[in-house]
Task: inverse folding
């Protein structure tokens, strides 16, 4: 044992830091992660769960009242047909980006550090996309005929309009959700089997037994599993790019100044990754603290995520400035006004919140010291999320509020129901997330083992 | 038959089964009608049975009507019976004040739904104004008084009749009426006067031409009012006169004015409109030169003009000495140029003065017109001597007598007396007068103080006649039986003399119509008016010798104001929405934004920007306005609204609002407690302006203004942008420039590198095939649009557009399919104005269609951008992507509690939209389809003239042309072929089917300011 440690220490100078700290063994990893689902949750969990659950109730009330009374309960008006609901939709879809990016793209790029965070990042993705999916469903005027959007054969021989970006959304987000869910589940199978094997109660045995799909850890299983996982990773990777590109076409395809911009697809993807990673950091920091997972989700992980935030935040900043440049360069007065109006018009406050949170705050992460400061990371990640919500707010609302004919112009202010619906969506998200923490292995046990020194008989030597 | 009338309490019916439900009718059918039914039944053959049933069914229709059966005659064609689904059209007449307008009413299965102008009637010429258009809603007003009311309890006409007969002839009886210009009513009134020989008669209206009539009488000794022929005038001077929309002859004025205003080619001439205003009106917004004055400065203006005219050669006029200089140099120059322009266009000019101006002003204006050779040329005069006209002095006298308890019986005929005079009454009316008898439509303040309230029938429920100002005699033909237990004014008067005749009998027996034979009477009913009576009241006025009339000039001189005064003035005006208050309960008119201020639902205190600054006021600030009326101090609280172009130190108050009406029906989205304020309580009845004191109340009162939705004072950033943008959106030029460069509209297209006119912008997608006719299109002439809202109301009536209420309007959710954009240009003190009606433009490349995920909005082969309401799921994406923002979303179920009776006003050819559905202008697709079906049945191609859309029919300015753009001879094709036709936001390549004709102004060359001053537009704001 001491030999190994020595070797590792020697290699530290030229190699990456170890991904799992502390004196973990395979067994202790299993014990550490599985026991979270097996022992009663800490008090903090209960508090958080009850709070989330009440927000979920708020969501329910908000939706029921919306369906009962109509979209008039929101602050929408005639030029501003989309308000917080669409802002929230794009916001949640954006958050739902990090999970698949971490698990699929980083997997393909052999970024082993992903193992500690991929599981709950993926869970976050699934839940965020679920939150996102609420909004397009309920924001429409006649909820009860929402199914018209799906290509269901019908007696009217009516198909949806395949030219409409909203329909592309249906497919893009739907596909993304399905593949992400599958990918997540496939990754969970070996861990479900672990939980099944450790199960002491009948219920756990049965439930985890079913979920584990008869996994016996045989060589053949592992072979098939790894192939399936690789394939799903391959499938998911283009989706990471496509889903937010498609969402951005909701705006880019239109002819509204401020929406009609070709930069939107890459800019939206960058923004989504930015917000996704911010959300992972926001969640990871309390989770690793409460469940004592500092040795598995190490500062190194947080450091890397902060770097990604720095990169994507800067990309977003670049997109903001490029929008302005193009608006000016195009010599299209409507276009340039849309952007000047964003920065200096009635929504300037929202614009500058967005700029400070998304462009200025991530610049802190140039400093390693700040990247490794838990409070800084936590606060910055929350700022990033606020900033990204405001980015969508600015795009959706400021553009709509002042378009071509000045007599159309209007101002938008949300109503209480806009706010409750948004808060409620956090209720759904956190309820699901807390249930996930409680009942599922929040860290991919089998994958973490794979990146531990013990899994590498060559002691990191290349051969 | 009379037992049916009494026992069957249903006063209207729609179907036979509806009527057959009553046992009365069943037994009646068997026993009485048609004769011989019972005997024949024994030997019934199939054929006989069928023919008998057919006959009984057909005649049951007649049975259903209460006796006496009067045939009403359809205007266009006479179907044998009412065919469900196919409307019938009947001619009738809408009396408003001294005038009466011929109307054609669309009736669906016995239910009138839409009013259009009678093409042949000289006062409507096929068009209507917003009041006439909206008056159909008054018929179905759920808050109408439904039964005679006595002492707050429902009563009957019989009891009322008994009560009347008990009135002793010697008691002090007073009658007060509105303006009446109906021969049969006047005849009846004469009979009532005989019955009550000691009675006093008074007439009162806020909209009164009394001063004008007196003024002209002073000169001519005759009761005359001017009848303008604007089509013959090259120069028009309006002195505080809103002749285009605030006058009883406004339709005629609009029709003739627009003829002289419209420009088709660069060789056309165009009239020039000078406006002197103490408020801001539609007419003022149309002016080429507009000068704002305070109300009392009108004398100074007239004096200056008079003197300038003398200088230009009208030597007959008497010089009015003006000491000191009152007007700025700019004004004086304008007056000089104006005088020159008037003299240059002798007998081709018009000077018109507003009704409320004093009589000496009208006298002088008459003389000026005479000297300019306008009388009998551009201005004809019509005699109104046969009418009952408002007489202010007698109304004030009546109020005095009431105050002194010298009136025992007061008959109030269809005017809200308490609303009009409460500020002059010493006590509540019921304490001052013993017996108050009121015939009116609503449970208003007058009704609540009256001992008796008799419900009055709507004109669509009555037989009657009316005389137009030009003398045309028209017939008021009912379209429906009275919905409630109401009677017409004629029936009421007949009841007073103990006759109790029906209105039909009264009409038939009246002196005027008695002698008409059946065929000619039928013809009059069919046409809606008596052809031979057209222009029968027009008289030629003799030239008056001015010398003996010196006192007119000296009176003007006496009234001159010397020096500047900074006193705050209040100026009262009639509402463009609810007129004198009579449309207070008409929600279409309440909600339609005011033509000028764009405020809906309420009145406000309008002030200029400078005055607002002086008094430190901003929009929606509540202020207290106090003055003295009759020596008593009076005050009201009203919200301030700033309107550029108003005279400084002046507050404009609209009369008519604040009328309290007891309402029976609560509507979710319409807060019926919103009343506005009663401006009359600070008005001295003798004057339309007064001095007033203003003090700020530290409160805000939210105001629903549709063109200031952003609610922020427009910051410099946006103002600059609007400044840049508007010349492109509203393209305009002057006549002079246009003659030099008739392609001026292309300037802004060139900026966007758009290919030549009529050449398409390259597109990635192949375009649809729009070559096969008919291809529908529209052209709107901005040059003649006066923003009068007639189109908006017509559209609302035709297309069942819901009323949403003040709160929803404030939230930016008004549903009107036509948005009347109003823009100011120039400095806030003396702005120029531009109006642009925008409804769905039916783009060939419609951006809305592409983005709808469910294909609920699609194009048809005739170029219509259609909306499939059933398919619409309400994503609102189409509205977001519409660059013109003409789509309207049903955020709530606005029709959720529309009372049944109001639902009867709905057009059955148009779906009532549920919440969550997008809607917008359809080019009246239902009318297009009806015309298609008709053409198909007649086995012919659809002609351009087969389809008239609602806004087009309503527009008295003929600004809207609609038709087939593939037909080169259609009106719309001709309009679109004009060089100043342009597409709104053409660079977006949406290819709109509705295009605009650019606005032209015709300033006098000597008054054109050099363009070194930057032109400055502001969007709906100051």
Result:
């Amino acid at each position: 044992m001491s030999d190994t440690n020595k070797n590792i220490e020697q290699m530290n100078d030229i190699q990456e830091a170890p991904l799992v700290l502390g004196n973990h063994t395979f067994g202790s990893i299993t014990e550490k992660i599985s026991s979270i689902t097996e022992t009663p949750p800490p008090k903090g969990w209960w508090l958080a769960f009850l709070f989330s659950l009440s927000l979920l109730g708020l969501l329910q009330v908000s939706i029921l009242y919306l369906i009962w009374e109509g979209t008039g309960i929101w602050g929408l008006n005639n030029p501003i047909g989309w308000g917080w609901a669409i802002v929230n939709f794009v916001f949640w879809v954006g958050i739902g980006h990090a999970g698949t990016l971490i698990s699929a793209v980083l997997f393909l790029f052999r970024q082993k550090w992903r193992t500690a965070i991929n599981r709950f990042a993926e869970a976050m993705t699934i839940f965020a996309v679920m939150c996102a999916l609420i909004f397009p469903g309920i924001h429409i005027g006649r909820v009860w005929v929402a199914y018209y959007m799906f290509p269901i054969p019908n007696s009217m021989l009516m198909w949806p309009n395949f030219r409409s970006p909203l329909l592309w959304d249906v497919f893009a987000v739907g596909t993304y959700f399905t593949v992400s869910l599958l990918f997540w589940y496939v990754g969970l199978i070996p861990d479900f089997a672990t939980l099944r094997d450790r199960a002491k109660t009948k219920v756990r045995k049965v439930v985890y037994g079913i979920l584990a799909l008869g996994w016996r850890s045989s060589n053949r299983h592992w072979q098939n599993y790894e192939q399936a996982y690789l394939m799903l990773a391959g499938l998911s990777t283009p989706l990471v790019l496509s889903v937010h590109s498609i969402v951005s076409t909701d705006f880019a395809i239109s002819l509204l100044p401020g929406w009609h911009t070709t930069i939107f697809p890459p800019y939206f993807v960058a923004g989504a990754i930015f917000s996704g990673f911010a959300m992972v950091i926001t969640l990871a920091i309390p989770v690793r603290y409460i469940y004592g997972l500092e040795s598995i989700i190490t500062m190194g992980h947080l450091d890397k995520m902060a770097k990604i935030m720095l990169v994507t935040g800067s990309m977003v900043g670049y997109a903001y400035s490029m929008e302005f440049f193009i608006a000016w360069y195009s010599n299209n007065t409507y276009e340039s006004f849309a952007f000047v109006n964003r920065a200096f018009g009635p929504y300037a406050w929202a614009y500058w919140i967005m700029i400070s949170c998304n462009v200025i705050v991530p610049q802190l992460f140039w400093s390693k010291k700040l990247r490794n400061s838990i409070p800084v990371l936590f606060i910055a990640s929350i700022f990033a999320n606020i900033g990204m919500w405001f980015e969508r707010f600015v795009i959706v609302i400021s553009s709509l509020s002042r378009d071509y004919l000045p007599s159309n112009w209007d101002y938008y202010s949300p109503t209480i129901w806009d706010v409750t619906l948004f808060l409620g969506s956090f209720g759904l998200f956190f309820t699901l997330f807390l249930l996930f923490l409680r009942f599922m292995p929040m860290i991919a046990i089998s994958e973490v083992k794979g990146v531990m020194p013990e899994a590498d008989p060559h002691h990191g030597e290349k051969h | 038959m009379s037992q049916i009338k009494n026992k069957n309490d249903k006063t209207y019916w729609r179907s036979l089964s509806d009527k057959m439900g009553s046992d009365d009718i069943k037994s009646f059918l068997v026993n009485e009608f048609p004769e011989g039914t019972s005997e024949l039944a024994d030997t019934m053959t199939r054929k006989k049975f069928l023919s008998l049933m057919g006959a009984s069914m057909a005649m049951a229709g007649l049975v259903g009507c209460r006796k006496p059966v009067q045939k009403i005659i359809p205007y266009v064609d006479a179907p044998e019976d009412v065919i469900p689904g196919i409307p019938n059209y009947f001619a009738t007449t809408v009396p408003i004040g001294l005038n009466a307008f011929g109307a054609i009413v669309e009736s669906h299965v016995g239910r009138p739904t839409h009013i259009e102008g009678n093409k042949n009637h000289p006062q409507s010429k096929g068009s209507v104004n917003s009041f006439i258009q909206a008056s159909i809603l008054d018929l179905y007003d759920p808050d109408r008084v439904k039964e005679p009311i006595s002492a707050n309890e429902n009563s009957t006409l019989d009891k009322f009749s008994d009560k009347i007969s008990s009135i002793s002839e010697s008691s002090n009886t007073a009658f007060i009426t509105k303006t009446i210009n109906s021969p049969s009513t006047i005849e009846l009134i004469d009979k009532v006067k005989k019955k009550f020989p000691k009675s006093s008669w008074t007439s009162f209206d806020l909209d009164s031409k009394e001063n004008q009539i007196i003024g002209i009488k002073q000169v001519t000794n005759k009761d005359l009012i001017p009848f303008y022929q604007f089509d013959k005038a090259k120069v028009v001077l309006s002195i505080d006169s809103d002749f285009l929309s605030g006058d009883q002859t406004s339709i005629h004025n609009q029709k003739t004015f627009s003829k002289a205003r419209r420009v088709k080619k660069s060789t056309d001439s165009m009239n020039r409109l000078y406006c002197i205003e103490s408020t801001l009106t539609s007419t003022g917004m149309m002016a080429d030169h507009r000068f704002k004055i305070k109300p009392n400065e009108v004398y100074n203006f007239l004096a200056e003009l008079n003197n300038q005219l003398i200088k230009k050669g009208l030597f007959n006029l008497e010089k009015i000495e003006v000491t000191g200089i009152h007007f700025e140099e700019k004004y004086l120059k304008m007056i000089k140029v104006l005088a020159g322009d008037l003299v240059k266009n002798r007998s081709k000019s018009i000077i018109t003065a507003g009704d409320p101006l004093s009589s000496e002003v009208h006298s002088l204006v008459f003389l000026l017109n005479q000297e300019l050779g306008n009388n009998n040329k551009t201005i004809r005069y019509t005699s109104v001597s046969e009418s009952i006209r408002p007489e202010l002095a007698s109304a004030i006298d009546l109020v005095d007598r009431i105050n002194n308890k010298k009136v025992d019986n007061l008959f109030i005929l269809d005017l809200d007396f308490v609303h009009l005079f409460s500020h002059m009454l010493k006590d509540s009316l019921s304490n001052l007068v013993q017996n108050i008898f009121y015939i009116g439509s609503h449970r208003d303040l007058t009704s609540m103080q009256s001992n008796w309230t008799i419900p009055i029938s709507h004109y669509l429920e009555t037989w009657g006649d009316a005389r137009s100002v030009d003398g045309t005699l028209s017939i008021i033909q009912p379209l429906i039986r009275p919905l409630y237990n109401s009677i017409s004014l004629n029936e009421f008067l007949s009841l007073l003399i103990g006759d109790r005749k029906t209105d039909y009998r009264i009409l038939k027996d009246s002196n005027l119509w008695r002698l008409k034979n059946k065929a000619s009477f039928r013809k009059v009913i069919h046409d809606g008016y008596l052809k031979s009576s057209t222009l029968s009241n027009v008289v030629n006025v003799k030239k008056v010798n001015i010398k003996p009339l010196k006192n007119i000039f000296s009176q003007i001189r006496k009234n001159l104001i010397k020096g500047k005064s900074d006193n705050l003035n209040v100026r009262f005006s009639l509402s463009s929405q609810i007129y004198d208050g009579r449309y207070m309960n008409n929600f279409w008119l309440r909600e339609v934004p005011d033509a000028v201020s764009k405020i809906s639902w309420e009145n406000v205190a309008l002030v200029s920007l400078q005055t607002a600054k002086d008094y430190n006021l901003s929009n929606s600030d509540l202020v207290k306005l106090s003055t003295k009326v009759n020596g008593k101090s009076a005050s009201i609280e009203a919200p301030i609204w700033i309107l550029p172009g108003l005279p400084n130190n002046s507050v404009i108050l609209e009369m008519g609002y604040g009328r309290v009406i007891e309402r029976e029906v609560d509507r979710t989205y319409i807060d019926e407690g919103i009343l506005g304020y009663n401006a009359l309580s600070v008005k001295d009845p003798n004057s339309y302006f007064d001095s007033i004191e203003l003090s700020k109340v530290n409160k805000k009162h939210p105001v629903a203004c549709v063109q200031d939705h952003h609610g922020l004072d427009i910051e410099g950033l946006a103002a600059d942008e609007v400044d840049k943008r508007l010349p492109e959106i509203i393209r305009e030029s002057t006549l002079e420039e246009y003659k030099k460069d008739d392609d001026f509209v292309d300037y802004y297209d060139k900026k966007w590198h758009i290919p030549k006119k009529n050449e398409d912008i390259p597109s990635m997608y192949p375009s649809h095939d729009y070559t096969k006719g008919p291809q529908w299109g529209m052209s709107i002439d901005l040059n003649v649009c006066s923003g009068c809202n007639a189109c908006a109301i017509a559209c609302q009536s035709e297309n069942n557009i819901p009323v949403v209420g003040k709160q929803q309007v404030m939230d930016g959710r008004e549903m009107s399919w036509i948005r009347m954009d109003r823009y100011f240009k120039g400095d806030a003190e003396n702005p120029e104005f531009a109006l642009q009606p925008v409804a769905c433009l039916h783009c060939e490349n419609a951006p809305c269609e592409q983005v709808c995920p469910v294909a609920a909005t699609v194009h048809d082969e005739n170029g219509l951008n259609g909306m499939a309401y059933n398919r619409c799921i309400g994503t609102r994406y189409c509205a977001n992507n519409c660059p013109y923002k003409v789509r309207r979303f049903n955020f709530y179920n606005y029709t959720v509690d529309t009372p049944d009776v109001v639902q009867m006003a709905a057009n059955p050819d148009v779906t009532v939209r549920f919440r969550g559905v997008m809607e917008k202008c359809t080019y009246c697709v239902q009318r297009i389809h009806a015309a298609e079906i008709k053409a198909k049945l007649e086995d012919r191609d659809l002609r351009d003239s087969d389809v008239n859309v609602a806004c087009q029919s309503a527009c008295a300015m003929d600004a809207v042309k609609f038709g087939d753009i593939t037909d080169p001879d259609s009106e719309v094709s001709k309009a679109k072929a004009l060089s100043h036709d342009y597409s709104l936001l053409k660079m977006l390549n949406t290819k709109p089917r509705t295009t605009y004709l650019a606005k032209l102004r015709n300033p006098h060359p000597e008054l054109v300011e050099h363009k070194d001053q930057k032109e400055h537009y502001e969007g709906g704001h100051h």
In short: Chain A touches chain B through 56 residues (CB under 8 Å). Chain A has one domain: 32-455. The domain at 32-455 of chain A is CATH 1.20.1630.10 (Formate dehydrogenase/DMSO reductase fold).
